[in-house]
Amino acid sequence: MDEKFDPFVAEWVSFVKNPNFNLVEKCLKFSQILEYPDLNVDEYINEISRIGMSLKESINDVKNPTYLISMLNEHLFENLGFSGDDDDYYNPKNNFLNEVIDKKVGLPITISIFYTEVAKFIGLKLKIIGFPGHILVKYNEEMILDPFYDGRLLDIDDLEEILDNNFGGEVEFKPEFLDEVDDEQILVRLTRNLKNSYIQSFVYDKALQCVNMVLSIEPESPDDIRDKGILEERLQNSEIALKYLNKYLEINPNAEDIDFVLELIRSIKIKINQ
Questions:
Q1: What is the DSSP string of 64-116?
Q2: Separation of alpha carbons 186 and 179, rounded Å
Q3: Which DSSP state fits 3?
Q4: Same structural domain for residues 189 and 156?
Q5: Crossing angle between the packed helical segments 183-200 and 204-217, to the nearest 10 degrees
Q6: Binned average pLDDT, 10 residues per bin, the chain of 274 residues
Q7: 96-122 pLDDT, tens per residue?
Q8: Within this chain, do residues 121 and 200 fall inside the same structural domain, yes or no?
C-alpha cells in the first residue's frame, strides 16, 4: 500500500526551509496550513508590532537588560494579561501563535516565541533554549527566563525542579540543556507538541499529519517513526502501520517499549489474516 503525496507536508517543508521568512511568519503559516486556512498572517504580525511599539513608547532610554526585561514582563503579563495555560495545557489551540495572541494564553514554546519577538522592539536579543520538557528563554548564561510563568528569572534549583516535575527525577541537569535552538528545531518541537495534543484529544488524523510533517524534516527520528506506525494502525491503515513499526524496531532494537510494539505488530498481523 503506497502512501499518497501530501501537498500540506510539501508546503510545510518549503516554508520551514525558506530563509526569507522569520520564526513568527513560519508559526503563523503553521497555523494556516493545519487549522486556519483563512488566517490573515499580516494582521497578526501587525498586532505583535502594535504591542511591541506600545512597550517601546513606555520605556526610557535605559539600556540595562534587567530593567528592559522587567518592563517587558510588566507590559505583557501585568498590563496585557498574557500567561501560560496551566488550566488547559493540552488544548491543541495553545500551539497556534494566532490563538495565543487572541486568547493571551499558551504553552512554554508559543509564549516564548511571542515573548522574544516583542522583546526585539526594545533592543533585547533574547534566545529560545530547548530545555527538555519546557522551553525557556535566555539573555545570557546567567539570565534564564521562563515566559510561561510571567518571565520569572530561574536559578539552577528552579531548572532542576522543572526536570524533576517533567521526568520524575530520571534526568540530570546538563549545561547543554541551555543551548539556543534554531527556527527549524523550534518548529519541529512545536509540531511534536501539537501531535501530542491531538493524540490526547483523540484526533488521530491530525496527529498523523503532524508526524508526517516532523518526519519530512527528521526522517530517521525513532519516536516519530513509532508514532506514525501507531497512528496508522488507529486509522486502520494496517500495511503502513506494520512498515513503520518494523522500521522502528530495526533502528531502535533496545527500545524500552519493545514489548508494546511487538504486541501491536502481532495484533495487526492477526487482523490482516482474519
A1: -HHHHHHHHHIIIIIIS--EE-STTTT-GGGG-HHHHHHHSEE-HHHHHHHHH
A2: 12
A3: P
A4: no
A5: 160
A6: 74 89 93 92 96 92 88 96 91 94 96 97 95 94 94 94 91 92 94 92 93 94 96 94 95 92 92 82
A7: 999 999 999 999 999 999 999 999 999
A8: no
Identify how many contiguous H helices and E strands the chain contains and give both numbers: 12, 6
* Dihedral Cα 243, 246, 250, 251, nearest 10 deg: 70
Question: Are residues 16 and 254 in contact, defined by beta-carbon separation less than 8 angstroms?
Answer: no
Work out how many domains the chain is built from and give that number.
2
Q: 81: domain range? A: 7-178
Helix axes 65-73, 41-58, angle to 10 degrees: 120
Structure confidence by residue, pLDDT tens digits, 64-102? 999 999 999 999 999 999 999 989 888 989 999 999 999
Please answer whether residues 127 and 229 qualify as being in contact, where contact means their C-beta atoms are separated by less than 8 angstroms. no
Q: What is the pLDDT of residues 220-239, one digit of tens each?
A: 999 999 999 999 999 999 99
- The pTM of the full predicted model, rounded to 2 decimals, is 0.91
Eight-class DSSP state of 180: B
Alpha helical stretches, state H, 87-237 = 97-103, 108-119, 156-167, 183-200, 204-217, 222-234
Q: Specify the DSSP element, H or E, that contains 153.
A: strand 152-154
Q: Cell numbers for 73, please give them.
A: 514582563
The CATH number for 225's domain is: 1.25.40.10
- Kindly state whether residues 80 and 213 are assigned to the same domain: no
φ, ψ at 20 (rounded to 5°) = -80, -10
**One-letter identity of residue 243:** K
Q: CB of 56 within 8 A of CB of 121?
A: yes
Q: What is the largest CA-CA distance in the chain?
A: 75
